[in-house]
């Protein structure tokens, strides 16, 4: 009978943690704590507010940290006898790392690490909002393609920077006098910031120390800059956007699959039986099943006693 009672209580406590973690009230509380922590970190940068409400800000920050610790503990408890499954989710690892940094007893020389940990808590909005996870997941999935596109873009930037030194180095030694300065100038042109002024300086030519204009490039300069903008800005940046859009179009299916798998794993961890009932009815079914098993054990014991009595008689 004691074994039946423990068998009944274990799934009940496990289900309690899983239900709390999956409830809308718990998620809203965590989201509110993240927003409160984000606002507090920003308010602490204002000296007048820090001096007037420093004690209140510290108290609220401790409450926020306590909610984060409680969240981690409940999510680990929801995994039941396999708590290591909590760390199988990269978002959970991020939440745990941020919370652990904020709990470290760091000395004054490591106060910057603690401040960075508190600032990183604002990034937990990503883990609290599934839509943000979708966007970040698409960006991470696009990193391999990003690498090849950036390599091709760097090759184009390098080639145009070398040509810029040969074409405009004598006219504008400040912007094109060396390979490094030429690459910085072409990178600024790539951002479309002030590129018209840079081109006009090469088209009209800059005055020399004697006042005369030398090394003007009225034909080559427009061809150089227009071709670089068309190839570098229009083509490559559109390629980056296309890669991101393609990754985001593939993410919902993966997200739905992961959500379904996580729900199945949580159901399997919460109960040794398949989840055939709604969350409210499943616990009642488990309780009834345990009671019936206990009754069957009692009936079997009575039957064995009756058979031994008859056999002895």
Explain what this protein looks like in three dimensions.
- The protein has 313 residues and is mainly alpha-helical.
- The protein has two domains: 127 residues, Up-down Bundle (Four Helix Bundle (Hemerythrin (Met), subunit A)), CATH 1.20.120; 106 residues, Helix Hairpins, CATH 1.10.287.
- It is built from 13 helices and no strands.
Q: What separation lies between the terminal Cα atoms? A: 29 Å
* Element string (H = helix, E = strand): HHHHHHHHHHHHH
At the fourth level of CATH, the homologous superfamily of the largest domain is Voltage-gated potassium channels. Chain C
Structural class: mainly alpha
Low-confidence stretches: 1-13, 254-258, 268-279
Number of strands: 0
């Amino acid at each position: 009978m004691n074994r039946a009672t423990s068998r009944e209580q274990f799934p009940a406590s496990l289900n309690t943690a899983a239900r709390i973690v999956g409830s809308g009230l718990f998620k809203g509380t965590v989201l509110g704590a993240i927003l409160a922590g984000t606002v507090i970190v920003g308010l602490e940068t204002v000296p007048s507010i820090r001096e007037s409400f420093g004690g209140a800000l510290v108290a609220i920050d401790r409450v926020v940290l306590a909610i984060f610790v409680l969240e981690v503990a409940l999510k680990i408890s929801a995994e039941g006898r396999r708590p290591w499954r909590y760390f199988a989710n990269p978002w959970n690892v991020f939440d745990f790392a941020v919370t652990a940094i904020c709990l470290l007893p760091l000395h004054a020389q490591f106060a910057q690490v603690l401040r960075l940990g508190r600032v990183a808590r604002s990034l937990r909005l990503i883990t609290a909002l599934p839509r943000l996870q979708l966007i970040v997941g698409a960006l991470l999935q696009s990193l391999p393609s990003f690498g090849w596109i950036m390599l091709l873009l760097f090759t184009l930037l390098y080639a145009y920077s070398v040509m810029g030194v040969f074409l405009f180095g004598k006219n504008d030694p400040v912007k094109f006098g060396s390979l490094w300065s030429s690459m910085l100038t072409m990178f600024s042109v790539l951002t479309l910031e002030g590129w018209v002024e840079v081109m006009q300086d090469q088209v009209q030519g800059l005055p020399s120390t004697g006042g005369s204009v030398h090394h003007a490039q009225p034909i080559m300069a427009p061809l150089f800059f227009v071709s670089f903008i068309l190839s570098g800005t229009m083509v490559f940046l559109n390629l980056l956007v296309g890669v991101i859009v393609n990754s985001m179009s593939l993410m919902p299916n993966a997200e739905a699959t992961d959500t379904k798998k996580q729900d199945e794993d949580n159901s399997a961890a919460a109960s040794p039986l398949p989840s055939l009932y709604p969350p409210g009815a499943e616990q009642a079914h488990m309780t009834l099943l345990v009671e019936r098993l206990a009754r069957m054990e009692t009936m079997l014991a009575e039957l064995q006693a009756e058979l031994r009595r008859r056999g002895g008689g």
